[in-house]
Amino acid sequence: MRWDVELTDTFGGEANYSWCKRETIELPETATDRQVITAAKAALGLTGQRCRRFDHGEGFELRPVGACAVAFVLPSY
Predict the structure, then answer these.
(1) How far apart are CA 69 and CA 13, in angstroms?
(2) To the nearest whole number, what is the mean pLDDT of the chain?
């Protein structure tokens, strides 16, 4: 399964998109949520960075602690 991941800055807590880093990752269909998040963080250079995770049904939102940034992890169709 393919996942689109993107990392962008925030302004007032909302995604701002004045800069954006986008990647696509591929994982098996049987990948757990934790495996998806770990792979997404690695692709965006957030390995080791604590993040608050929000589940939005099909995808995830990651908010790195202490940074004005947000990452979105969504299935690629």
Answers:
(1) 8
(2) 96
The span from the CA of 4 to the CA of 77, in Å, is 9
Q: Which domain holds residue 67?
A: 2-75
Q: What is the DSSP string of 23-74?
A: EEEE--TT--HHHHHHHHHHHHT-TT--EEEEEETTEEEEEETTSSEEEEEE
C-alpha 8/C-alpha 31 separation (Å) is: 25
The number of distinct structural domains making up the chain is: 1
Give the separation between CA 61 and CA 28, rounded to whole angstroms.
Answer: 20
pTM: 0.93
Segment 42-69 shows an average pLDDT of 96
Which residue in this structure is represented by tokens 């963080």?
41
CA pair distance 29, 15, nearest whole angstrom: 29
